[in-house]
Amino acid sequence: MKIKRFVAADMRSAMNLVRKEHGPDAVILSNRRIEEGVEIVAAAHYDESAVQRALEASRREIAPPPPSKPRTAADAVIAAVTRRRTATPA
Prior knowledge:
This protein has 90 residues and is α+β, with helices and mostly antiparallel strands. The chain has one domain (2-85). The protein is built from three helices and three strands. It has a three-stranded antiparallel beta sheet with strand order 1-3-2, with helices on one face. The protein starts with a strand and ends with a helix.
């Protein structure tokens, strides 16, 4: 995959640059307004399956571990009653 950053005064000009360099099958990865006008990051020879695999792998690395046991409202009430009973002398 070939990734390149394009900067132009407006979106139309930037898209023309993308099409000229990468052709009609270019994939826009991002775009934003900048001081100079518009920035587009585009890719050619885009392999969607490779990007999906990389995205899934990064999500697995970043995702926090699931809680060991889901907590319900009933669990919270039971915990509060238990704390109250142990804190209050009989």
